[in-house]
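Subject line: Sequence and fold of a protein, written as structure tokens
Body of memo: The sequence and its backbone structure tokens, given next.
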Amino acid sequence: MLRLDGLTLHYGQFRALDRVSLHAGPGELVVMLGANGAGKSSLFLAISGLRKLSAGSIRFNEREVARDKPSDIVASGIVHCPEGRKLFPGMSVAKNLMLGAYVHRRDRRGSDALIDRVFGLFPMLHDKRNDPAGSLSGGQQQMVAIGRALMGRPQVLLLDEPSLGLAPLVVRQVLAAIKAINAEGTTVLLAEQNAYAALQIADRAYVIESGRIVMEGDRQTLLNDESIRRAYIGA
């Protein structure tokens, strides 16, 4: 479904991605593990078309998309939920959600059905649908951000650090919602520093360090790997 081959990305002279190759198949939940600055966000920006590659190929459903416009990438079925939520704090929850459906704006009936799906996934947002997004708690804002991405009708959902800064109980709620989204058939590529929690719901995982993939494997392989436990999970 999504295949990256040899992705290289520069910021000036700095090489943020160095020949990154990975894949995510239909219905998989794949985790990207790595510390701050390892290249996870740069990878997602490249897939989304927001950063142009120095080299490499991004194929989605057998079609090259590396040179497509970001709006066309969203319309094709790859939707990015960025780190930091990037909501419009003065706008209502409902309006923030509907912004995610912009590329499908001609299908209002479909978008209305999707917003009901989002409210089913995050019931507390229904009660706050008319409240300014900026008045919500951090966890609720993250739910809005994920819901907005779902309004884009993703086949592949890119989630960048959705648990960052959240309390442990809220982290569990957010990850449970991500697992539910995946169970409905959406392929998920999840970038996380919370390695143990992320691996609990993953099918497979990659480890990225200094812009390079240094390890990959299934959930149990990485959970049992001593170097991964020391670096990302703890003894």
Summary: Strands lie at 2-11, 14-24, 29-33, 55-60, 63-64, 78-81, 156-160, 187-192, 204-209, 212-218.
